[in-house]
């Protein structure tokens, strides 16, 4: 890879496939460069980790309940003894609704994607087909250089 990269091929491949699986050097630094390229191209980026996502489909596109840690405090009455359920709006759908008018779309950059199951990765690969403004970048593992391929190809290789 060249020392200075424009990221045009990366953005072109992302727009073509909708979801990319990336392999990044373990020392880091490349993710930020490519995120800056995406923002300069007109995309809004949202970084998140795959750890603790739970049901990926509901977390990204549906209203879901969360139960924060009770920290020793328990509710009394008809509610569950482990605490109240708070309902959170869907992350991706909410971000898509609030995009700036001149934005090309939303890019979800998900780190630690190696912990996701095959079905979850397939769901993420097909998610941009539901809304073309949504793009997915999933970090699949480490490599010596920053490389990428369509996310469905990384599922087939695993």
From TrEMBL:
Classification via Pfam families: NdhN (PF11909)
Acetylation as UniProt keyword: no
Membrane topology, from the record: Peripheral membrane protein
Subcellular location: Cellular thylakoid membrane
EC identifiers of the protein: 7.1.1.-
GO cellular component, one term: plasma membrane-derived thylakoid membrane
Residues making up the signal peptide according to the UniProt record: none
Catalysed reactions, as listed in the record: a plastoquinone + NADPH + (n+1) H(+)(in) = a plastoquinol + NADP(+) + n H(+)(out); a plastoquinone + NADH + (n+1) H(+)(in) = a plastoquinol + NAD(+) + n H(+)(out)
Protein name: NAD(P)H-quinone oxidoreductase subunit N
């Amino acid at each position: 890879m060249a020392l200075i990269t424009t990221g045009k091929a990366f953005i072109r491949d992302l727009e073509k496939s909708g979801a990319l699986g990336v392999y990044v050097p373990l020392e880091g630094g490349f993710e930020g460069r490519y995120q800056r390229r995406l923002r300069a191209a007109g995309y809004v980026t949202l970084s998140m980790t795959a750890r603790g996502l739970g049901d990926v489909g509901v977390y990204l596109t549906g209203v879901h309940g969360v139960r924060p840690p009770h920290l020793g405090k328990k509710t009394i009455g008809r509610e569950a003894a482990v605490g109240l359920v708070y309902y959170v709006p869907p992350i991706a759908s909410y971000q898509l609704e609030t995009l700036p008018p001149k934005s090309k779309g939303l890019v979800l950059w998900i780190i630690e994607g190696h912990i996701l199951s095959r079905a979850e990765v397939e769901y993420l690969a097909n998610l941009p087909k539901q809304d073309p403004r949504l793009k997915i970048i999933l970090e699949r593992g480490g490599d010596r250089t920053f490389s990428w391929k369509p996310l469905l190809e990384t599922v087939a290789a695993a």
